[in-house]
């Protein structure tokens, strides 16, 4: 019970911090999205304390907010605490397009109307206070249980609480709606002309599908993993921005292996995307596991000097446990030993661990391994997955 109360307390404090900033800057959506998170924590705690069983939605480790409030027993419990059920639904739906019919989408800016914000906050805090009183029993006095109700909007609007470095409008709504711990994975794939040989490109396409399907089928990994995919030949292209995998990741028919290999721009872009995502996590107060950078290539780039200049940065980040790098050279069986050594030495420079050399006929197996490793990381397990299925002997 104490852990549940601590979680609620942290959620309420976070909401109040966001509320201060949002009211000052008139950003309404962050108030509604964070308010939904507070309501979800409060309702989940009420369900746990009351011993009510609510069936979870597919792929979720716990019942969603909608699952809970649509449960008849939960409705009855809420109403038994002198809470109007329509107020709960109001908090849940306040930021949706249905509550603002003039908006074209759920991501459009919501007009700031002070009277409406006051009404919203009043309802949310009343619900929190009454449920806190119930779940705390005799362990908390009235003022402690309802402390959030005693905070005035004058305090909330105190500009000293505003973080000027946070662009609240740019935060991914998914991070605000579901602030579970994430693992950002940036995958950089070589699509230069040499990838046409030995069926490497076709395996790359299949491997990406295998990887995303495996993540989708694993509830823990699906909830935690956020994946970005970059493609590179003589230029860099962002195929998928960071986000949870919601559909199968594919290389479209229009994407073909061609041209040479320029890699330094892709590395810089990947590091920038990872850094930006970590800033979003910080702004949304979402914890994250050590980020991953996956590099897959079958040869030496035309900008080796620029790549070598970036290697010390990558090594330092790994030593400080700010990044994990998987540097994977694809080596065909008939390559000359001297050429293989040159490619492996180049790829080794990106990682503090010796690069894991990929058999050109085992690319699909590598992506299976990668999905299992992501699942292990999402469950805070060590990564002892066997690599013998795909490594070059």
Quick gist of this model?
The protein is α/β, with parallel strands linked by helices and 393 residues long.
List keywords for this structure.
9% strand, single chain, 393 residues, 15 helices, Rossmann fold, alpha/beta
| Radius of gyration from the alpha-carbon trace, in angstroms | 25 Å
What is the CATH level 1 assignment of the largest domain?
Alpha Beta
Question: H/E order of the elements?
Answer: HHHHHHHHHEHHEEHEHEHEH
Computed structural class: alpha/beta
As for the number of domains, it is 2
Topology at a glance:
Blueprint: H1 2-25, H2 28-50, H3 65-69, H4 72-80, H5 85-93, H6 114-136, H7 142-145, H8 153-156, H9 173-177, E1 183-190, H10 200-217, H11 219-224, E2 225-232, E3 236-240, H12 264-284, E4 292-297, H13 304-319, E5 324-331, H14 337-348, E6 358-359, H15 363-378
Parallel strand pairs: 1-2, 1-4, 4-5, 5-6
Antiparallel strand pairs: 2-3
Helix pairs in contact: 1-2, 2-5, 2-6, 5-6, 10-15
